[in-house]
Amino acid sequence: MHRSGLRMVLAAESADGRGAAPEIVVVGETGDGAEAVELARRLLPDVLITEIVLPRLDGHAVARAVSKAGLPVRVLVLTDHDTDEGVLAAIAAGAGGFLRKDAQGHEVIAAVRAVAVGGAVITPVVLARILARVAEALPAPETTTTSKLDALTDREREVLVHLARGHSNAEIAGALLVSETTIKTHVGHVLTKLRLRDRTQAVVLAYETGLVKPGS
Predict the structure, then answer these.
(1) Residues of 151-173 as b/e, b for ≥16 C-beta within 10 angstroms?
(2) Which residues contact 2 (CB under 8 A, 6 or more apart)?
(3) H helix runs in 14-123, sequence order
(4) 65/204: higher pLDDT
(5) Dihedral sign, CA of 112, 118, 122, 124?
(6) 130-177 pLDDT tens trace
(7) Cα dihedral sign for 103, 105, 110, 116?
(8) How far apart are CA 32 and CA 49, in angstroms?
(9) What is the pLDDT, as a whole number, of residue 15?
């Protein structure tokens, strides 16, 4: 029933609510975690949408398997199980997005599009809780360790700050007055130098090191 409803949303509603979104095509579906991984290997979709609770492999295991296999597939978690631990576990497993099932259709569409191009999406109310926990866990300014960021150039640090604030490559390019291709190169250097898997991990690190403060 849930898959049927999701399929209808993806097929019939665009992000701005003004009609169909034909560029989004559902290429496969299953109610089994292990089969989801096999479908991801075989079909290589841009985005794999998964629940947390699934037979054989849960959503976290699905995300880990996809990430470990190095597949060009981004994972978006859509679930009712939105505990802080569950969200953090999903991010650690490699998920690029985390939405609650009560999200509106246009929010789901927007999340799919954002995750497909390498963005990160977390339901706002959940993100607020996570950022509060990150803020509590941050060391005092005088004891903050930034050695992890020493390998970055000043420009790469600027780019990381923009990433942590949720800006797209195009928005960063506009703010720094350079081309989007240049920003993509900088993002790649940031991820490589810091040994990070994706933009989501970059955001977490930016907060952990104190480079960006919640609300700044």
Answers:
(1) ebeeebbebbbbbbeebbbeebb
(2) 51, 101
(3) 33-43, 59-68, 84-93, 105-116
(4) 65
(5) negative
(6) 777 666 665 555 444 456 788 899 999 999 999 988 888 999 999 999
(7) positive
(8) 12
(9) 43
